[in-house]
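User: What would this chain look like folded?
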Amino acid sequence: MNWVNKCKLLAIGAVKYNSWLYLETNDLWHALYSLFNITQNHQIDMEILDKMPSKMSSPWVLFKVG
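Assistant: Here's the prediction, encoded as structure tokens.
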């Protein structure tokens, strides 16, 4: 079953943080963890969301499992 194996990150999907490219999963998690901790106690200006154009919502397509 190939879908349960570990997959490698695509080179085009690399994350750049502090001028370093993070291509390995462990490095990527370290960068994301660092970014989260830096921004955790910052104030957020929620009014920026009011400037975004509204989009119509789409109904969910019903599906049945089983």
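The chain is about 25% helix and 10% strand. If you want, I can go into more detail on any region.
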